[in-house]
Recover the amino acids of this structure.
């Protein structure tokens, strides 16, 4: 979006007793003030946006009326990082970062005011992973940074939309610097917790795979559905671990087949039966990937284990 100076005001329906949204666009930052609350947060429109596969948007719920501050971040990949659908509680004065490609749904009181700062991820110095982490937890009004910046950003927004162009641009630049500081502090405080959450989720997924190895229908789609995440996010989790979902399933099945063939070297169960029990639909495919992985055929491995 090309930055322009000045105020843009729209009054909504004729005769409406409430003022319309007030905008200030300057220095790569858009400031939007709405009163009363909007039905939805601003959203980035992209021809490359893909359907939301998370089973529903994350929702922010506020119990009390008042003023709420939102920071919409543009410039990230659409739906690159996803999380399970969840509800988050908001209080008046809280500051909440959100991805403009995937804004959370709002459940706010009818009589409240929202102030939204829209700026690029590049101005904030955030990666996709950073953005995913700081959108999980609001900056509370009573926190160390929230108590300092929430009232200041609120007053700055009011002044910026009501000032002449040159003053509005100077205020917008100060807002960018403040939001960059806030994002950095917020990431440092909550980044580790988000990483721990991701690690715990990966552990649960690995246990699920181990418990369902014998199911020939085990697939990324089924795994993602069982953990209430998208297939795209599932693949991202395994990419962070340096592997893929399919590779993990294949290696675990081969390990169990290898173990059972060694244990049953004097048994009557056929190699094809062992492969079928651990989820291989084709004995030929099983023999091929077994040899590629271990350097010998399943029969050679069973015979050597027997000796």
């Amino acid at each position: 979006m090309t930055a322009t100076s000045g105020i843009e005001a729209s009054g909504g329906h004729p005769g409406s007793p409430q003022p319309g949204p007030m905008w200030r666009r300057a220095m790569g930052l858009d400031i939007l003030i709405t009163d009363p609350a909007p039905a939805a947060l601003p959203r980035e429109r992209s021809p490359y946006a893909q359907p939301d596969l998370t089973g529903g948007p994350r929702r922010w719920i506020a119990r009390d009326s008042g003023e709420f501050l939102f920071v919409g971040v543009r410039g990230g990949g659409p739906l690159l990082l996803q999380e399970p659908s969840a509800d988050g509680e908001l209080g008046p004065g809280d500051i909440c970062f959100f991805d403009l490609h995937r804004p959370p749904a709002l459940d706010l009181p009818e009589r409240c005011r929202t102030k939204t700062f829209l700026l690029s991820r590049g101005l904030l110095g955030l990666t996709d992973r950073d953005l995913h982490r700081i959108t999980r937890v609001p900056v509370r009004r009573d926190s160390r940074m929230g108590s300092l910046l929430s009232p200041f950003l609120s007053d700055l927004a009011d002044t910026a939309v009501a000032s002449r162009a040159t003053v509005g641009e100077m205020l917008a630049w100060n807002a960018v610097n403040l939001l960059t500081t806030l994002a950095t502090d917020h990431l440092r405080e909550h980044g580790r917790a988000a990483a721990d959450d991701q690690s715990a989720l990966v552990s649960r997924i690995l246990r699920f795979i181990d418990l369902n190895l014998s199911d020939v229908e085990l697939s990324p789609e089924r795994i993602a559905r069982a953990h209430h995440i998208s297939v795209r996010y599932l693949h991202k989790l395994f990419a962070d671990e340096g592997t893929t979902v399919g590779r993990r399933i294949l290696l675990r099945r081969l390990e169990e087949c290898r173990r059972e063939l060694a244990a049953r070297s004097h048994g009557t169960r056929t190699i094809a039966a062992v492969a079928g029990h651990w989820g291989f639909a084709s004995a030929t495919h099983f023999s091929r990937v077994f040899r590629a992985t271990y350097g010998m055929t399943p029969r050679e491995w069973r015979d050597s284990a027997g000796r």
User: Anything to note?
Assistant: Residues 165-211 form the longest helix (47 residues). The chain has a mean pLDDT of 80. The two ends are 72 Å apart (CA to CA).
